[in-house]
């Protein structure tokens, strides 16, 4: 029977990638259950497999072995259209290097994916303003990413993920490119959101401050959960 | 939103976008100008063919042109007056030129040269056949015993304006006949074989020489030079009223020089158009490939947030579409500007095959081809964009996000 409280279920998930002629095992037989509203941090040294695992959970890559279920549905059996639907509506991604669209300003960066979700203009604008206000950028709506600091860009990326109202926010090293003050602020915003909106928050980080704020921590080493 | 994104992506790198738009503009401009140049040559050929020899077409007895008869005059037209009546009532017909052609010996008393004579109505032909260039003297008018000679023939006979030229030929009954004529003009059509053998004399004089009242050919000059449909209508009127006659357009009468030249030039245009389009596609492919490679991470981000491969391709194609529209319009504007300035005086061309004189070609830009050129420009840009973007769009999301 499907446990409705489980949002992700990984069974025997393995992933390897090619580096030249060599095959590198990034994940080995991962078994993991993630509950709704979890604030989970994957930690571990570089190369331990945390980013790879987040990529699999964020439908950026697919496992070569094993099965990942999202909301009770196996991702292996989904076609590209169904995967895109999940990416568009259920997942919010925050990257270490922000990945904002440089030709759009802060407002438009947040608005773009809402437009693609098919949300009406009025509701869209409301959500964009709310999200940017929440991350403290209500006065920077018309600034473009290249005119912003790293902290501001990461806030736009968070607002963008937040405005989508996803089931899960996946953040890969969200504080890695930020100073300590900005890192603190970003983490408190994310934590606040997780508890307020019940969004599942999955973060990969080796920042002690991030690890300390998690409700659950999973340590990884050599592609395994330890 | 897609159009907004596409416009901003084009603005992102001004120089590169300008290079793309300029590539399209040059391709479209070259295509449009070359089409106009070709049209100019065609029209020049057409004008020369119609206005120097054939008119818009000729009427003969059916199959007369295709057969060689022992007594061709047995197949000449003997009811010219009734045909003329029908033609005068036709709204398309402006000029009617009854003619007879015959072979004769010409002499100045010392030198004898064989020639091909045309008996014509000098007054009406003088008004229409403006491409018959006179090196000396003038065209036939109302002289009863005037003759005009092709430049080569006049040279062979070593005669000048005012000299007497005797024309000797057989009547249709076989007896020898001669007429003493006075040279009033020396013409030059540019077609060497015509200028070396042809002479013209008044129709009445020719009929007297041949001892006949018949007409061999009726050439026609139409009111509308450019409208080929007019000829079809005239042809249908003639052939339905006179079942033994056929009307042949100038392009068929001058198949060797005119029609073959036209077919050759259009085939050449087709090949050059293909080359221009391929160059444009390759140029665009090259520039856009670089632009798209620099945006791999951004494309990865779009895909990671739920944009399908098709959505991303649509965005890229929208950029191609906008660049295509701007580039094509710029190309058209540049063509008109160039034609109104540098090409205003026309282009002096060397003689074409079978022709001995140079001529000016004016680039005649065709509004009817404008939309075709613009659409070709846009299609090429989108094709170049599609080929440039195809590989990146197919790349895995993770690989796109990891790219530098």
Strand content of chain A: 25-35%
Which range best describes the helical content of chain A: under 10%, 10-25%, 25-40%, 40-55%, 55-70% or over 70%? 25-40%
The number of distinct structural domains of chain B comes to 2
**Most residues in contact, chain pair and counts:** A-B, 26 and 23 residues
Number of beta-strand segments of chain A: 10
What kind of sheet is the major sheet of chain B?
6 strands, mixed, barrel
Q: Which bin fits the share of residues in helices of chain B?
A: 40-55%
Instruction: Determine the strand fraction of chain B and express it as a percent band.
Output: 15-25%
Number of structurally distinct domains of chain A = 1
| SSE topology string of chain B | HHEHEEHEEHEEHEHEHEHHHHEEHH
Radius of gyration of chain B: 31 Å
Write down the overall mean pLDDT of chain B. Answer: 90
H/E topology pattern of chain A? EEEHEEHEHHHEHEHEE
> What's the CATH architecture name of chain A?
3-Layer(aba) Sandwich
Number of helix segments of chain A? 7
Principal-axes shape call of chain B: elongated
Distance, first to last CA of chain A: 28 Å
Cα-to-Cα separation, first versus last residue of chain B: 27 Å
Oligomeric status of the shown chains?
heterodimer
